[in-house]
Records
---
Amino acid sequence: MREGVAKAINGVSFDLSERETLAILGESGSGKSVTAQAVMGILDTPPGYVTGGEVRYCGVDLLRLPEKQRQKVRGAEIAMIFQDALSALNPVFPVGWQIAEMFRKHRGANRSDAYAEAIKLMERVRIPAAKQRVRAYPHQFSGGMRQRIMIAMAIALNPAVLIADEPTTALDVTVQAQIMDLLKELQDESGMGLILITHDLGVVANVADRIAVMYSGRLVETAGVREVYAEPAHPYTKGLLESVPRLDGKGQELRAIGGLPPSLLAIPPGCAFNPRCRYATDICRVGAPPVLEEISNGRFSACHHTKEVLEWAAK
Ligand code: SF4
């Protein structure tokens, strides 16, 4: 950036298995979407550059592949759905044409076969009257239906990994639930791994197997979904959970996390969360940020005081 170099993600590492749903959680600006774009190889360059690291898929580091080969992986093996389907879809082409393009480009299908596949996919994601609506334009669909079209495009080639970047944020609550049910159903059918990027703790609780919490471009906690909800180990995760209204919390004040996430151009020394953390001590304000350490089987937290946080919570 003109003002300097912003490290949007730094030291982030995670894995994903077949059929698994990993939720990447964090506030806006924590680096969730940039992580997804870096994995997909669709960062806007400039200003974004991947300057190190690996993105391994089936043993191959995608960052080392020539762009032509990477394009073959993108969409066919690893696909992505975006938050705002209206801006992600091309407004001047019918939706069927856009879905069919996947088959023409990647599979060399002819026009009529590709359209037939598009109709099948529209039916699979439950768009009513798919045959009649295959030539309709994105603006002629509701928000929920447009998101279904995005999902149809993403699953067209049966990808092994689907990255869903805030797929329900722009939708109302009932449609959100329908879209999440649909994603889960498609995952059960195909066995794909799902990376769900969200700031919505409700969505995560219902569908994720594991959670990775990001703050200021770093992972601060990773664990199974039940462990995180029952006993968050990192003060930031704890703060996120405490700021959600509870049905059994009538009369209780919500405990918001004070302050704002730091600018990526001015990350505080030590732990980036220290100005907002109620557990912070002197050690948190100096030196390098704490690294992720295993606190129990498969559970990691990046905090100097994880043990104390868990002990205080248990009291
Ligand atoms: Fe809070 Fe310190 Fe832990 Fe950071 S390292 S989360 S500031 S207690």
---
Amino acid sequence: MNIPNIDLHCHSTISDGLLSPRSLVSFAAEKNVSVLALTDHDDIAGLEQAKIHADKLNIVFINGVEISVTWNKRTLHILGLNFDASNQELISGLRGIREGRLKRAERMADSLGMAGIQGSLEGAKSYVHSNTIGRIHFARFLVAKGYAKDIKTVFKKFLTKGKPGYVEHEWASLEESLGWIKNAGGDAVIAHPGRYDLGKKLLPKLMEDFKSYGGVGIEVSSGSQDPSQSNFFAKLANDYGFLASCGSDFHGVGISHRALGGIKTLPDECIPIWSKWTKI
Ligand code: AMP
Ligand code: MN
Ligand code: MN
Ligand code: MN
């Protein structure tokens, strides 16, 4: 049986969430989360603060990160879970991705400039609380300036493929990201596998590549994919010998599909990723 209230995917102000790591942990306690991983995009700067606070609130805290990866010309998100956060190779790999984010942001601002929107780099930066700039920060600026009525619309109008403000970007490779996670003693998990629209050929190819580079799990239940997909991914996990993870992908009240701690169960046939973690 699954242990309830395990949430292994959420974001703080260290990346594109709305709550500080400390507030996020307090909020998790309010929601009766008993095991929490903070998984900011390409940044682990929030883990120490979150862990200190989680210890006080009796929440089992798991180190996490959501790494941006380019595989077969697509962007994938790979979760690293339960690693040593002092690992230098991981730290410098993530720093490289964040530097790439800044360069991408400059190109996004140029692209928006050509569409007649000035000052978006400075505007987006004003919403950044740490060192990780992303599309959400541009989205918040664009909504504040009245270019769209809400975040959802702004992504549709500006920040997705083919729209002004969207630029192609080369993230880390799948192989190197899994290398960083493994060398830091962690487990690599494919985040929200239902969101990549891979089709019949690429999905097995991803499973095989992921396995061959040392991937361990897939996120069977995710707040950012349709719950009806869970059974499909549970079977896929079992077919390829992957463990199953679950997480809300919570970013903040009002901007997430699912509440923090709102993903509670994995299909019965799954072997949960935490079955190999001694602290749970
Ligand atoms: P980035 O990694 O900077 O390209 O930004 C990706 C993040 O933008 C995701 O993790 C989500 O938080 C957010 N995002 C992407 N697409 C949408 C959307 N359609 N509506 C709202 N947020 C989105
Ligand atoms: Mn995000
Ligand atoms: Mn993601
Ligand atoms: Mn996420």
---
Amino acid sequence: MIEPFDVVDLIRAKRDGGELTSPQIGWLVDAYTRGVVAEEQMSAWAMAVFLRGMAPREIRDLTFAMVESGERMSFAGLGRPTTDKHSTGGVGDKITLPLAPLVASFGVAVPQLSGRGLGHTGGTLDKLESIPGWRARLSNEEFLDQLRDVGAVIAAAGSGLAPADGRLYALRDITGTVECIPLIASSIMSKKIAEGTASLVLDVKFGSGAFLRDPEAGRALAETMVRLGRDAGVGTVALLTNMQTPLGRAIGNANEVRESVEVLAGGGPEDVVELTVALAREMLALAGQPDADVAGHLRGGQAMDVWRRMIAAQGGDPDAPLPVPRESETVVADRAGVLVDLPALPFGIAAWRLGAGRARKEDPVAHAAGIDLHVRIGDRVSAGQPLYTLHADDPARFARAHEALDGALRIGADGDPVHDGGPLVLDRIA
Ligand code: URA
């Protein structure tokens, strides 16, 4: 086959700040998928994009080309509206666990294809796999049956959805080209568009524990993704949310499941409940139920009923005891005062070093490893009061976790500024 373009020309054009045409972008993605464009050429192109950016039309072309690289699911025959949520990832972000059954408890189907954690942000599937028996891999038929019978499914995304993105994301991970708005937006949206949901709510995070520290960069990412969703006919809304400090009190896997179950039982930390309710309202509004009594379904047990059915449908036992850590160490306050700094990133890194996350995608995770916070930012503490407990299966892991946390948590005096990053939900972008 004679190729219509020369990849070196396309790399040069991007390197020099030019725009690629739609046929050029379509060809580049297709040729990369076919192995005609080599990994090192795609890396050079990704770095050129990282440095030069992309026009909105180029981002759209890249997204749709990645959608076209694989299969597209459809829920048209389901007979009820579908809605999904995607979070750009953060520390202690277990929101999908209570959110999917909560939204499904209103009769709306939630097809949630999730990933595993890489680096300091945990993965939803890793958390759920701490439930004995629970299985992430479902066939397309099992997925659809569960969506029809239970209404909520959280399962592993198969390699058939946007496979070009799978390869490009792995390449970006090892070439310093992850933190780039056009590439993040096209990566996330290609998978969500291929998944076939009718509507989508994006939780775009900013702050210490997020991909993008700066709220304005988060806003630009949110606007780019909302535009892509609209262009694909998927009703899309984004909330711009604060990830300066960890969400909730649990960071890990099994402990995050425990905290999610508390939320489903009508309790749980305030911030986790607030964000779960805010995202559920947006999802239900997109699915035609703007007045749903969302908090009522947490208090009334309807969301918990769906959770139990959702876990059982995938082989899990919702009543089984969760794994417990072999070793724990608690850190206490060395003086009295106010907690003025509790940044998410060092806690995410520490949890990862304790074994809750993985360094390479084939590594296993320790389900009981992680951190339980006993205090929240802004709390007043006394000398000797427990601040947080580290959990690991292997005690050799504690030293490096303590190192990550050294100096991270700061105790100040009354009146000192508290670095909490501001409100939990900063803005809504539609
Ligand atoms: N998640 C993705 O799926 N892709 C990115 O580029 C970043 C986060």
---
Amino acid sequence: MNLDVAGKKVLIRVDFNVPLNSDFEVTDDTRIQGALPTIKKVLEDGAAVILMSHLGRPQKKKKEDGSIDVEKFSLKHIVPYLSKVLDRDVKFASDTVGPEAKSLSAALKPGEVLLLENTRFSPLEAKGDEEFARTLSTLADQYINDAFGTAHRAHASTTTVANFFEPSNKSFGFLMESEIKNADKVLKNPPRPLAAIVGGAKVSDKILLLEKLLDFVDILMVGGGMAYTFAKATGGEIGNSLVEEDKLDLALKLIEKAKENGVKLLLPEDSVVADSFSNDAASNVSDTDQIESGWMGLDIGPKAVKSFSEAIASAKCILWNGPMGVFEMSNFANGTKSIATAVAEATKNGAFSLIGGGDSVAAVKQMGLADEVSFVSTGGGAMLEYLEGKELPGIKAIQG
Ligand code: AMP
């Protein structure tokens, strides 16, 4: 972040898309905490700060009469919390590019903070609308994007608005910078061996990631629901486990690609199986390719835990995306827990570890291991796309 902000008004796109309870209190402040270093630095350096963010999906969840549910999706609910953590009164504009935002921005003094209303109250936000973005840009002298979680969206407040600022007047915030820097550690010249662990429900969600990883990792471990599509593709009996019949060929191609590229591909040898999709189901351990009909694999088994853990221990760089089983149910959380522990252990022994995207992040946090890995990404979909090698519009708009 190399902007000269003293005496300026700085428009900062943050990700304040936080969960609220029925009294509209913030129940998980991770995202707000993530943005605080940037906001505090800009204030310390003598600027006025105008914050903007989205909250939820107000366009998709309209009221019965077709209007926006302002009460439910208003960012005004965040103001008390934000005032407390910034130790000053945060002003609030009940619009984003309307008269209130304009007059409050114009009157804003160094050290003061203004929060604009939810950017997604306007349908123009998601369209990346030029005029909407231009008006936003007129509120401030400089622009900082610190919302990595939405960097894969070409929205007005994350992307288009940056085009209205000169290169010397726009920058990433600290959070964006560290997300990019840490992902690049894995993508560009990583210490080796480089091991990737990919899990989650479906192969179809992770095709691009798996294909890309096979180009540059040394070891690839596949767990979670997607492992059963691989098991079936190679002739295994998988009972009632999750499977994507239309991805069986793809699974074979990925296995072939791993061989061609000399990547050690590890699939779970055994699974914890259950007779229904429930934490109370009867459960057992079975070889992954011999699951009886009526049973489904809901977690990786003890042999898989052992071989995955050994592979993780041998790595100098580790990337993990997606849980190894239905970790939300305590009886099927052991595989994910064990892998989290193995990653933490390898980190302690000097490996670099990045937990990138979605449920594996939730799992690591749930297990209290977030501080024992090198980096936990805040950007689910954005991190996935970055790791897939895509150019994220929010990054490009700053870098030019
Ligand atoms: P994803 O969002 O693709 O990372 O998928 C995460 C979801 O995959 C979690 O909600 C897990 O419960 C689910 N999942 C993981 N393993 C399995 C499995 N063996 N069968 C069904 N769902 C699974």
